Amino acid sequence: MTSVAGETWFQDAALQRVLTLLNAEGGEARVAGGAVRNALMGLAVADVDIATTLRPEVVVERAKEAGIKAVPTGFEHGTVTLVVDGRGFEVTTLRRDIETNGRHAVVEFGTDWKADAERRDLTINALYADASGEVIDLVEGLKDIESRTVRFIGDASQRIAEDHLRILRFFRFFAYYGSGRPDADGLRACARAKEQLSSLSAERVWTETKKLLGAPDPSRALLWMRQAGVLTAILPETEKWGIDGIHGLVAAEQSLGWKVEPLLRLSAMVPPDGQRLEALAKRLRLSNADALKLERWASTPMPPDEVTDVGFTRLLYRHAKDGMIFRLKLALASARTAAEGDPMAMRKSARLSQLLSMTEKYVKPSFPLSGSDVMAAGVPAGKRVGEILKELEEFWIGRNFIPERPELTARLADMVNEGK
Predict the structure, then answer these.
(1) What is the CATH number of domain 1-147?
(2) With contact defined as beta carbons under 8 Å apart, do 29 and 23 qualify?
(3) Can you give the pLDDT at residue 316?
(4) What would the mean pLDDT of 16-24 be, rounded to a whole number?
(5) N or C: less crowded end of the chain, CB within 10 Å?
(6) DSSP string covering 251-268, please?
(7) How do strand 49-52 and strand 87-93 relate by DSSP bridges?
């Protein structure tokens, strides 16, 4: 018997209180999905979801009687979130799909655990643990857990037809939990249905893609996505640019302790072309912050190999810090890949590491003067104010940001008196 009874998360008092409440008086509730999967794979368990035979209104009624807060987070689909000791547990009534159109499903509540399991997407996501902790497998998910196989439940094409986002979920779960080659039936079904991804909202596509890019090592999944034509379908910018840099980037992240940044990994896959990246950001409806990061990366030049510390500091002043960090990390990852047995590449890697450290510690100095200072010196408002200010700033930069306000003010006065 496979059990999760000994797991710390399963013994949690808040979870046990919810399970006890829902298993009383003819009801039945089981932990479902990700928590069971992760526990069996030896991975951390975060959210704990619960499936129940009780209808949502009964769940709410029981929670109210027990003094537990109930939030109807998806009531029409049978989901109620119960909050115990500050922790939320999503409780969803057993369902079966009676109508699907590739995006939305019309569901019917029921009490059939097998029907509920079979409406889910992947076998490893359809395991349950009952109130005693015993794992219940109705779709042969346990053997897939053991072999780390990511496989659709039943007919792969049918599962995808029910929700086209499952194409991306297949690869995302492969990135996190799969080994070897992806399931052949699933891979073929994804390749055949790839054009259907265009029917999904941009937000859903980017959210799923971002999760995939956040996997510890998404390189194998991205490779298979490219081979299936799925990557080009959602990121046509990668078609002639490729994903070859991802493996080296992941290796650098793991070796140097860099935080995983999905946007940096995306940058490794697309050309630093401002116009194309702007179009990408609009198409996928990236947040303003993410779109700006990509724009800054694209507009930040790569420092010359022979750049001095002084020259690099001036370059940093003129360009965005986060854009430079992206540039240097990608270049360093590439240099580290080439460094094996190449002394020149090793020296380049060492220098890039120095520049990256300088960038991360960099605090941009503030130019001591403003347009109001120029006008106070007697220059009328207009284009000339900006020109003088720019010339003074260039003087300040050229002297390594050392001149302070008094010296710059004196120089301003000389410029005005000379009629410049």
Answers:
(1) 3.30.460.10
(2) yes
(3) 96
(4) 97
(5) N
(6) HHHHHHTPPP-HHHHHHT
(7) parallel
The span from the CA of 339 to the CA of 270, in Å, is 23
CA proximity to 318, closest of 345, 299, 290? 299
Q: What's the one-letter identity of residue 37?
A: R
Q: Maximum Cα–Cα distance for the chain, whole Å? A: 94
Pairing of strands 29-32, 69-74: unpaired
Express each pLDDT in 349-401 by its tens digit: 999 999 999 999 999 999 999 999 999 998 999 999 999 999 999 999 999 99
Contact (CB, 8 A) for 217 and 260: no
Element (H, E) at 129: strand 127-129
Half-sphere exposure of 8 (CA within 13 A, CB side): 5
The CATH superfamily assigned to 155-233 is cca-adding enzyme, domain 2 (1.10.3090.10)
pLDDT at residue number 340: 74
Q: Give the mean pLDDT of 204-208.
A: 97
CA separation for the pair 196, 180 (Å, rounded): 27
Q: Given this model, what pLDDT does residue 122 score?
A: 97
Per DSSP, the residues of 90-123 read EEEE-EEEEEE-BS-EEEEE-S-HHHHHHTSSBG
Q: Identify the H or E element spanning 120.
A: none
* CB contact at 8 A, 266 and 213: yes
Q: Beta-carbon neighbour count of residue 147 at 10 Å?
A: 11
Q: Which amino acid is at 210?
A: K
Q: Are strands 105-109 and 95-100 parallel, antiparallel or unpaired?
A: antiparallel
